[in-house]
Amino acid sequence: MNIAMFSDTYLPQVNGVVTMIRLLEENLREMGHKVYIYTVDHPKATKSDYVYRIPSVKFPWEKDQRIGFPVDYKKIVKDVSAKEIDIIHAHTPVIVGYVARFVAKSLKIPCVNTYHTMMEEYVHYIPFMEPLLRVYMRGETKRFCNHYSVVIVPSEKIKKLLLGYGVTAPIEVIPNGVKLEPFHKEFSKQEVTEFWKRFDIPPERRIFIFVGRLGKEKSIDKLLENMERLLRVKENAHLLIVGGGPQEGYLRRMASSMRIGDNVTFTGYLNWPDEVSLAYHSSDVFVIASHTETFGLVVLEAIAAGLPVIAYKDDSFTGMVIDGENGFLCPDKERMHESMLKLMENDHMLREFSENSRRLSLGFSDDENAKKTLRLYERVVNRHS
Asked: For domain 181-361, is the CATH number 3.40.50.2000?
């Protein structure tokens, strides 16, 4: 099968959507299928015979993101036609997603879309228009999704969300997968010690780790507030924040103003998966306060690495975090420190939760995700024919 994937984000960018696309395309190629990527250009991108780059500019409010400007639609249509594409898979509801729809309609190719991101939760980047944009985004999401043969979602949470928007296109739940091996990897005591030294983390600390994009929607400020409360009773607690994003400067200043800077470490971006896996294995507990996840990819990585998880209660973590079995799902973001304290004071619970996390992770693999997606492709193509 010849497959074209369209996305507004791809290598060398680093985020959850890019990770999912890379895993899916790699698995599909290993199964013998041809996969081509249509995405935005990037000043640091390397050339590839499988990647078609569309002109783009920096996103005004976030320099790491780019907006595609497909000035020559006919050229893209011609390129897709020459590759004899069987199905188009869009991974974005933004500019390149509309390009995917246009190309599919022009060539009468079936087209599916994965709804990766809760777009409504990102309108805060334009605060003076936020109320209007929320209403617009719900309506536009409905219109956008209804143009596809099938909408793929990673969780029941997102299916419910889209149904609430009024989406009538068929919706298929296919959980995201992760390549488990890099996170199952065992690291030596020396490697862990060197990681701590690299970031000036004293070895006697109990380390809580967050991995992800440092954006407002991730509620990392709530993690800092809970760390400040925890440190009032446990001075050896430490928060490790892995990743970068628009709020990094603000969060660093916040930690400093709260006088917890010595117990909070910002690593910036780390290489995925090796350095990120080492970060997990150098920590004790994964923490996340976000309520905007479509699927907790970093949570899946964390449990694969054997970490207990403390999370704000959210349907996107269903099956990955079982309250009281491999972590805690907190209904109140202000009181997550209470669960953090429980794991600091109970080593037996910490070990038991760790073992349970590793076991639960086995139900989510990248090859299973690819097999389910391929079966969906085949059904859509056959129905289209």
From this structure: yes
